[in-house]
Specification:
The complex is a heterodimer of chains A (168) and B (207).
Chain A: E1 4-7, E2 13-19, E3 23-29, E4 34-40, H1 57-70, E5 79-84, H2 99-113, E6 118-123, E7 129-134, E8 139-144, E9 149-154
Helix pairs in contact in A: 1-2
Chain B: H1 16-41, E1 45-47, E2 51-56, H2 57-64, E3 70-80, E4 84-91, H3 92-102, H4 109-133, E5 138-140, E6 144-149, H5 150-162, E7 167-177, E8 182-190, H6 192-201
Classes of the chains: A alpha+beta (168), B alpha+beta (207).
């Protein structure tokens, strides 16, 4: 949680477990077989300078780009997949009410600023999700509590365009 | 004492004295809640010594339990002199046991409503004990029942109560129903402003 991981090893699997209002942000260069995943908890870093880089949307996206570039990814080839941002409770204490939606807005804005297109997303709703990014086949799968693991995106270099692709 | 990673009750934001005071508060609150549950079920209820966790947001979520465990939860928003959330967590099997003890079908609307009512009664007892001890006016709002992944539930709630402040305060009590495989976690998640107010009322505030 609040963490960030990157890999260029085909056998690796990056995952964000139990995404509620949090958002799993995957950034990949599929031609190079490089991927990174951040578990974003909140929209902006504000005064929390000591936070891990994956925790806030505004800092996570530049950190993801740095990580994949360090593993040989090309900036122009980067693509993103988003999962999470649910609103699990209708409780009006603190700012809990719309954090999922605010996270989604902040992540999309940060990706747009970095000119990284979002290729697929499963965002919003009321259920928690676990997101897995399989580096070798370059696929993203999503699983809800008690549910089946479902493929959200297939970015394998041989597929030009996957059926669930979302253009922005 | 230098902060140690993973050790409970360690924080740079709250002193040991403050965490002790909060733990004592949790002890009395959850003791009252345990008594309420015992009289409701007609069984003894055991109570473990509560934990007062003050940790970075992500670590606090991990400290509550495994992120991918499916749990039944009841959330009771608290308003008044402080804002907080009461969160009850049951492993799914234990929620089913509890429904059995209450004579309702688990996983149904009636089952969820019974679990919500348990949360309401326990949360209200806890909050009333807290209110009288710290001379506060506190009022619970209607409960929400959600069955989902533990990490998703706790992170979604904590990001709301503590937001960008970095440190989450969790008062965690474990209750166990005697002679039945039924245990539950009872958590109080105050907002950051709520913790400061609570400490002030207990005479261990920062100013």
């Amino acid at each position: 949680m609040g963490e960030l991981a990157a890999s260029a090893s085909a056998e690796d699997e990056l995952m964000s477990i139990g995404l509620g209002s949090c958002i799993g942000v995957a950034v990949v260069d599929r031609a190079r077989g490089v991927a990174a995943l951040a578990h974003v908890m909140l929209p902006d870093a504000a005064a929390d300078a000591a936070a891990p880089p994956g925790k806030y949307a505004d800092r996570a996206v530049p950190a993801l780009v740095r990580e994949v570039e360090a593993l040989g990814a090309r900036r122009v080839r980067l693509e993103a997949v988003l999962v999470g941002g649910a609103q699990m409770f209708d409780v009006g204490v603190g700012s809990a009410l719309d954090i999922g939606a605010r996270n989604a807005t902040a992540v999309r804005a940060a990706l747009a600023q970095a000119r990284i297109p979002v290729r697929a997303e499963e965002v919003g709703g009321r259920r928690g999700r676990t997101m897995r990014l399989h580096v070798g086949p370059m696929t993203v799968t999503v699983k809800e509590a008690g549910g089946r693991e479902v493929e959200l995106w297939n970015g394998s270099p041989s597929t030009r365009r996957s059926p669930v692709e979302v253009m922005h | 004492m230098p902060p140690q990673e993973g050790a409970p009750n360690v924080s740079t934001d709250y002193s040991d004295l403050q965490l002790d005071a909060l733990r004592e508060l949790a002890n009395i609150g959850s003791g009252t809640a345990a008594t309420a549950l015992a009289s409701l079920l007609g069984r003894e209820v055991e109570l473990a010594v509560p934990r007062a966790l003050a940790l970075p947001l992500a670590d606090a979520v991990d400290a509550v339990g495994p992120a991918d465990a499916t749990v039944s939860s009841v959330v009771l928003p608290i308003v008044g002199d402080i804002e907080a959330l009461v969160l009850l967590l049951f492993p799914t099997a234990d929620a089913e046991t509890l429904c059995g003890l209450l004579g309702v079908e688990p996983g149904t609307e009636v089952g969820d409503s019974a679990i919500g009512e348990i949360g309401n009664i326990l949360g209200t007892s806890y909050i009333n004990a807290l209110a009288s001890m710290a001379a506060m006016s506190l009022e619970p709002k209607p409960p929400h029942v959600v069955t989902d992944m533990l990490g998703a539930i706790v992170a979604s709630l904590l990001t709301g109560t503590v937001g960008e402040t970095g440190t989450a305060l969790v008062l965690d009590s474990e209750l166990e129903v005697a002679d039945a495989a039924c245990s539950l976690s009872f958590l109080l998640l105050p907002t950051t402003g709520g913790v400061a107010e609570l400490l002030g009322r207990l005479g261990v505030g920062n100013d």
